Amino acid sequence: MSKTGAVDPSTQEPLLPLRAASEFAAPTPRVPKRILVLGATSGIAETCCRLWAERGDSLFLVARSPEKLAAVAADLHTRGAAFVGTTVANLDDTAAHPELLAHAINSLAGLDIAFLALGVLGDQAQAERNFARAAEILHTNFVAPVSLLTWLGNYCAQRHAGTLAVLSSVAGDRGRKSNYVYGSSKAGLSAFLGGLRNRIDREGVRVMTIKPGPVKTAMTEGMQGSEKFADVDKVATTIVKSIDAGQDVLYVPGIWRVIMAVIRIIPEQIFKKLNL
Amino acid sequence: MATASTASQPEPPKSAAPRFESWGRYPSLDAKVLPMHWQGDFPGIIDGVHGGALAVGMGRSYGDVCLLNDGTLLKTTGMNRLLAFDANTGLLTAEAGITLAQILDFAVPRGFFLPVAPGTKYVTLGGAIANDIHGKNHHNAGTFGCHVTQFELVRSDGTRRLCTPTENPDYFDATIGGLGLTGIIRWAQLRLRPIVSRMIDYEGTQFHGIDEFLALNEQSQHVEYTVSWVDVNSSGRNFARGIFMRGHHSNVPAPLTKSSAPKLTFPFEAPGFALNSATVGLFNTLFFHKQMKKTVTALQDYEPYFFPLDKVLHWNRMYGKRGLLQFQYVIPWEHAREGTEAILRAVSKSGLASFLAVLKAFGDAPSPGLMSFPKPGLTLALDFPIKPEKSFALFKRLADMTREFGGRLYPAKDAAMTPSQFRTFYPQWERFARYKDPVLTSAFWERVTGGEVAQ
Question: Model-level pTM?
Answer without folding.
Answer: 0.89
